[in-house]
Amino acid sequence: MALRGESLRRSDCMTEFNPNEASFLAQLAQWNIRVGIIGGSGIYKLEGFEIIGSVNPETPWGFPSSPLTIARNAQGVHVAFLARHGLTHSITPSGVPVCANIAALKWIGARAILAFSAVGSLREEIAPRDFVVPSQIIDRTKGVRRATFFGEGKDAGVVAHAMFGDPFDEILRPQVEKIVRETLAKEEPNVKVHGDKTAVCMEGPAFSTRAESLMYRAWGGDLINMSALPEAKLAREAEISYVLIATATDYDAWRPAEGSVHVAEVVACLVANVAASQKVTAALVNPINELVKNDDCEAVKAIRGSMRFSIMTRPEAIPESVKPRIRYILDWYK
Ligand SMILES: CSC[C@H]1O[C@H](OP(=O)(O)O)[C@H](O)[C@@H]1O
Ligand SMILES: Nc1ncnc2[nH]cnc12
């Protein structure tokens, strides 16, 4: 649907908005987008929503993995969608421009992110096709991904240490789990839902060895992916409530009698998982939007301003040059 006053470049299939144009920005303010959705492996678009158009903002950290799709549901709630690995899955887990993705979602207004991820199961009881809304995560990425908005290395200019004891938003997470359970009980009764589990995020792109897979089990890991970090950390720094919705595709490599995981197995499972994820997304948007729709909401108040206490650098020592970047993700920063 084209909107009055917008200057648009029409592609064959989708209206492309200019992120710098005043009329688009005015329209954006009216849409009041609060929920961002990150599609993982297999999820490259939203189903069951009216697609309004797309916008590709250049953030101080570059462009996101894909333009943001702006979509609206039947109740008129607008959301933004991003394909983590790009629209054709051309970006490796280590190559995802995570800072740009989170910054772009903050720019468009997101206060909550529902992040989907295909995962391997490290537990017998989590079968392929099951859904998991984890509460904890173990970081096994290898330092090759930029993991903070606040600069890295000795020339950072500004140093911040975000609280991350509870890596997923503890107000939204139980709500998300409940809605996922209710939705799948109705729509996909054979799919089990698990909560309160521990994810492991590894570097990839190769899958784990059997020894590693067994080690993660011994550490208490229940599922494994390659994408949830630093995504969840950066969302915390940008004061966006982040919840991971994991869909199991395989048993990784720990089961002695089985072959270890390969992509064909993952892809075979993805088709069913993606269909279920689209139903879950449709069910989540209204209630989660309700929980973050304005700055007076409990979930928003709980996270907004939390980074004030995380910045260690003395204010007078923070270079002017880095301040616009901080303001891009934290609107209250002076
Ligand atoms: C396709 S198997 C490995 C790949 O799948 C997961 O991606 P995402 O989290 O974006 O769904 C996993 O993290 C790996 O990147
Ligand atoms: N076994 C596995 N390891 C890491 N990431 C995955 N994504 C899906 N299955 C996975």
UniProtKB/TrEMBL annotation:
Species this chain originates from: Tilletiopsis washingtonensis
Family the entry assigns: Belongs to the PNP/MTAP phosphorylase family. MTAP subfamily.
The UniProt record lists the keyword Chaperone: no
Binding site for substrate: 226, 250-252
Family annotation (InterPro entries): MTAP (IPR010044), Nucleoside_phosphorylase_d (IPR000845), Nucleoside_phosphorylase_sf (IPR035994), Purine_phosphorylase-2_CS (IPR018099)
Name listed for the protein in its UniProt record: S-methyl-5'-thioadenosine phosphorylase
Site, as annotated: Important for substrate specificity: 208, 263
HAMAP family: MTAP
